[in-house]
Write a structure and sequence with these properties.
By secondary structure, the chain is α/β, with parallel strands linked by helices. The protein has a single domain, classed as TIM Barrel (Alpha-Beta Barrel), CATH 3.20.20. The chain contains 12 helices and 8 strands.
């Protein structure tokens, strides 16, 4: 969702609202799932077929969507009609009760760092086996020479600044989300020729940046420039234990051609396999974001199935599971029309 309009605040207020009261301790959850808070959003009643499907999936594979605040998911994820603001504020607990949704992508943190009350409420809304894939603030992945989007006006120049990343992204997330923090993802928007011509220097800076970040957190790098891929790039990630974030996106090669083979034993691929397999299924190769949004809204059906990409992703996830490797897949509505329905279709393909 890079370059699009910022999401509504997750729990009300503006992007820098630090006045909200911290969430109180959540009541105990039913085994394995979260529960909707009183006065919150009702989850869709349990679908025994989806529950049985989830039980057949490898426990090491987690599915999630890019955020959760879509009114069109009524009858799919939510048990009623709610507006976007209500879902952004109160919908996460209901989302986490869907049998197949054991993770979520937090896109809003790309536009501005999340404050402590927001992180606390996120953690309290989900069960212990749930995982967040949190996008790091865009200031960390926007070179000084790049044109800064409007949402970064006033933000510090912090390109590959490990101190800034630690203070405003990593330390708050690992302290307040704990084990529920699955991945911190650094999404690099298209860098342009002025930056790419210095690719070797960029990889050197990337390696130093990743090495300086706190240990014990999974870091993934995701690109919109295929020129960044290559053995030296994967070796750079391997040196710090970071992973490549595979993305199904028109600007990048197919997900299974991005230089990461979960079963490979050579040094380059093995370096990328030291952490979880991270995939984001974002967009068809023949669509733009605005076109997909207009055509697929309100995201309540599979408008444009993409079996080829679904098959590639299913194969990668199955291979990772067979080798005991953790995997997290985040799906965007713009991939096929409805992220939860894409996940259900992919899960069915995997268990077959």
């Amino acid at each position: 969702m890079s370059g699009r309009e910022p999401q509504p605040d997750l729990f009300g207020g503006g992007p820098h609202d630090d006045t909200a009261a911290p969430a109180s301790a959540a009541a105990s959850d039913p085994p394995g799932r979260g529960r909707a808070v009183k006065g919150g959003v009702a989850p869709q009643p349990v679908d025994t077929g989806l529950t049985a499907l989830a039980a057949r999936l490898p426990s090491t594979v987690r599915f999630g969507t890019s955020t959760w605040s879509f009114p069109g998911w009524a009858g799919i994820v939510y048990g009623g009609d709610y507006d976007e603001a209500k879902l952004a504020r109160d919908g996460l607990a209901a989302y986490a009760r869907h049998p197949l949704l054991r993770a979520v992508g937090v896109d809003r943190s790309f536009y501005a760092p999340l404050n402590a009350p927001t992180l606390e409420r996120m953690a309290a809304a989900v069960p212990g086996d749930f995982r967040f894939l949190m996008k790091a603030h865009a200031a960390l992945t926007t070179p000084k020479s790049a044109r800064r989007p409007a949402f970064l006006q006033g933000a510090p120049e912090a390109f590959l600044d490990a101190d800034y990343a630690t203070r405003v992204v990593v330390d708050p997330a690992r302290r307040l989300l704990g084990e529920k923090l699955g991945v911190v993802l650094f999404q690099f928007s298209p860098l342009g020729e002025r930056v790419l011509r210095h690719r070797a220097l960029l990889l050197e800076r990337l390696g130093a940046f990743l090495a300086a970040l706190p240990r014990g957190v999974t870091y993934a790098c995701e690109w919109r420039d295929a020129a960044m891929l290559g053995p030296d790039y994967h070796a750079t990630l391997a040196a710090s234990g970071a992973v490549h974030g595979l993305c199904a996106h028109p600007r990048m090669p197919p997900v299974d051609e991005q230089g990461v083979d979960p079963q490979a034993e050579d040094a380059v691929a093995a370096g990328s396999a030291t952490g979880p397999l991270v995939i984001r299924w974002l967009l068809r190769r023949d669509r733009g974001y605005d076109e997909a949004r207009a055509e697929y809204a309100p995201f309540d059906e599979l408008c444009d199935p993409d079996p080829a990409v679904r098959g590639r992703i299913a194969a990668l996830l199955s291979a990772a599971a067979a080798s005991g490797r953790e995997a997290i897949l985040i799906v965007n509505n713009k991939a096929e029309g409805s992220a939860p329905l894409s996940i259900a279709a992919l899960a069915e393909q995997m268990v077959r």
